[in-house]
Specification:
407 residues; Rossmann fold; 2 domains; seven-stranded parallel β-sheet; 57% helix; globular; binds NADP nicotinamide-adenine-dinucleotide phosphate
């Protein structure tokens, strides 16, 4: 329980005491009062108040479900200090303040009703005003800086897609960047761009990380640098029915997506621990949260990255090292072409820049992040269904996205 205590202390320190009290209130509503109200109270005696209007019977039960959902959203929003909490939290509380004015006047009546209404609605109204004024607390507080972690960021897979955007975003924050991938010409062009645009240093390391010696080679090339952040992002997919896939290519994918991650973290973590600061970012995927037929080995590698990274997060949490597993859904990069996938609506893909923005906002605050709200819904809705159902639905969807010769 020691680590839970530290985690809780860190969470509580993120917001003022009055907001922690609101979060606690939301937790009591979600886990105790609302379930009791919904499932234990008989319909005949149930009452629910919205804007001072008292609902009874079945409408009260329906209102209770809505209350439950509102408090659950509020609890999550306070816990993660989500931007969307402003302004709806203050508007919701203002609605409660209004109800607390109307209800005693109309139901208690007389001078007592007026006093009760004015006093309680003034107190709750003050909370609504405080929430309205707390807008800045609900903004993204990114911790990713060279001052916190160290001067250099090593970015693998920096020649394209998400890795390229990581390099740009980190350089914009003042990190000097080590750019790693196989395509040398691209890496040099990007290094030139970062130096010219952001005035940082850049180093190019041309390396095949699927090769058994690749991770060691990269670690030796950066041994003279203060590496503050490792972005272990290089990865490939490979679409197709398992029996039609080439074993050598599958093993190469496992070497890149799994082994290289472990080897790089193992080699670069030591100096971070000595300094007591550093960050490790691993690009996983929402494909790592559930079985993905026709991408069976790929999704397994992404599941490996998720469990590896989240476990490291807990191990290193109190040692000054932040770990984050980034889990994007479909992103507009070269990934799909390399994997040999044929998706129906690639125009709906998230941009690599948006994936990176969400990642840098989440780093230091949580062990993993699903980027984009639609991906978050997709990634979590499966939890409520049997694993067999999830796998079979995914098989139908993914079969359609696989070229005919690979089905
Ligand atoms: N795009 C998506 O829809 C999506 C969704 C979820 C997760 N992801 C994950 O995001 C990460 C980045 O993918 P991306 O979308 O940015 O794809 P991308 O545009 O294809 O970029 C992949 C990067 O990895 C590098 N790379 C590939 N094989 C390598 C090897 N053997 N050694 C060293 N570098 C290698 C590539 O550079 P070179 O070819 O120059 O070596 C490139 O820089 C991957 O881990 C992927 O699984 C992508």
């Amino acid at each position: 329980m020691r680590r839970i205590g530290w985690w809780f202390r860190d969470r509580v320190a993120e917001r003022p005491a009055w907001m922690n009290a609101l979060m606690l209130f939301a937790a009591v509503e979600v886990f105790a009062y609302s379930p009791w109200d919904l499932f234990c109270k008989s319909v005949d005696v149930d009452q629910d108040v919205w804007l001072g209007l008292v609902l009874t019977g079945l409408p009260a039960k329906a209102g209770g479900i809505l209350h439950w959902a509102v408090y659950a959203l509020g609890l999550y929003g306070f816990l993660r200090m989500r931007r969307w909490m402003w302004p709806w939290a203050s508007i919701y509380v203002a609605q409660v303040a209004f109800a607390m004015l109307v209800w005693p006047i109309s139901h208690v009546g007389g001078a007592r009703g007026w006093i009760l209404g004015v006093v309680s609605s003034a107190a709750i109204g003050a909370v609504a005003v405080a929430l309205w004024r707390a807008r800045n607390l609900f903004s993204v507080r990114s911790l990713a800086s060279p001052q916190r972690y160290g001067k250099w960021a090593v970015v693998t897979g920096a020649s394209a897609g998400i890795g390229l955007e990581f390099a740009r975003a980190l350089a914009a924050r003042g990190f000097s960047c080590v750019l790693c991938a196989r395509r040398e010409d691209r890496l040099h062009a990007i290094a030139k761009e970062l130096v010219a645009t952001y005035g940082v240093d850049a180093r190019v390391v041309v390396v095949d990380l699927a090769h058994p010696d690749g991770p060691d080679f990269l670690a030796n090339e950066v041994a003279d640098l203060e590496v503050g952040m490792l972005v272990s992002n290089a990865g490939v997919g490979y679409a197709g029915a398992f029996e039609k896939q080439n074993l050598a290519r599958l093993c190469e994918m496992v070497a890149l997506n799994c082994t290289a991650n472990v080897a790089l973290v193992s080699r670069l973590l030591g100096p971070m621990l000595e300094r007591g600061s550093g960050a490790i970012v691993i690009t996983g995927s929402v494909a790592g949260r559930q079985p993905v037929p026709y991408h069976a080995v790929y999704s397994a590698t992404k599941g490996f990255e998720l469990l590896f990274g989240e476990a490291l997060w807990a191990e290193l949490h109190d040692k000054g090292i932040d770990v984050l597993v980034v889990q994007p859904g479909p992103v507009a990069t070269e990934f799909e072409a390399v994997a040999g996938e044929a998706r129906a609506h690639p125009s709906a893909d998230e941009s690599a820049a948006s994936v990176v923005a969400s990642s840098l906002a989440a780093l230091g605050h949580q062990p993993s992040v699903v980027t984009g709200w639609l991906n978050w819904m997709r990634a979590n809705v499966g939890r409520f269904f049997p694993r067999s159902t999830v796998a079979l639905i995914a098989a139908d969807v993914m079969e359609n996205q696989t070229p005919r010769n690979m089905r």
